[in-house]
Amino acid sequence: MTESFHFSDPARGKALADAIAKLAPSDQLKIVHVCGTHEMAITRNGLRRFLPESVDLLEGPGCPVCVTPAREIDTAIAIAQTGAVLCTFGDMIRVPGSELSLDETRSEGCDIRTILSAADAVAIAQETDREVVFFAVGFETTTPMSAAILLDGPPANLTVLASHKLIPPALVALLDLPDNRIGAYLAPGHVSTIIGTRPYEEWLTNRKVPVVIGGFEPLDILYAIALILRQIRDGTPKIENGYPRAVDPDGNPAALDLIDRVFEVADANWRGIGTIPATGLRLREPFARFDATSRFDVELPEEQDEIPGCRCPDVLTARAVPSDCPLFSVRCTPTSPVGPCMVGSEGACSIWFRYGGERQL
User: Fold this and answer.
1) How many Å apart are CA 54 and CA 42, to the nearest integer?
2) Domain 28-63+167-241 falls in which CATH fold?
């Protein structure tokens, strides 16, 4: 087999596994990805078993609801308690705030609704005279939809509680955390279809860390890992597109234009990490009237992001795997989650519990 790693090669799965074995580094290498879909494919298909013992593959802050800090959930709860209709995505409902989750708040009589899209929040606002708030979470993949509803003349009773976050600068922040030991990144395919390759080049080229964008089929992931290991072997760290059938260097210009017209870059608080400069988005001045934090004056409880015994902060920063947590599958399960990583469907703990995740053997 040549080192082109083409998907059209016969027995490409075995060829990729053989290539990865031949490229195995002599020193321990930690590869971090930041995508729940990647973790699901890796864990469900047992891909860690294809990796040499010298390669660790961990999920970092790849679950958008998991990295939403307690303070922002507290804000959403306080808004709902004023009598407004709060709309958000399903996973967000059960993530713990400082004292309550949205689900527990709903059980107390507040009108909190699960929606499937930003457009659903608009439809609800059109059908009522009450204040309607869309709690918008997600990375660059979902941000264009939040922008689109605000550009489309939304009802006056609709506001947005924006908690969108940006991936490339967060990858830089992870490198600067103590004991990160990150040797390479498997970059998320979904986010990259929107932003392309250029933001990674802007933020990470000078850090001399291999970054390979990967797709979501098992062979996509093995292919991306082989490319990472080849960069390691050759000593040529760079930004590489291992998902060219879906990712263009310029990304999706129309989606990027939507984001840029509505949002501007701001600092953001990430659960388990803290405030990271230039990793969040806030509404631009022309859209300030749709900012829920400006329309609602609410009092918040003292923030309590830390959950006793829970290692979600370490899982979210790729410094632990779910089974390292003493609560995992004991006190913390999908039916009775303790930490956010067991709540979100893209959270590492939830995925490991459902699909039997383990370190590679």
Assistant:
1) 17
2) Rossmann fold (3.40.50)
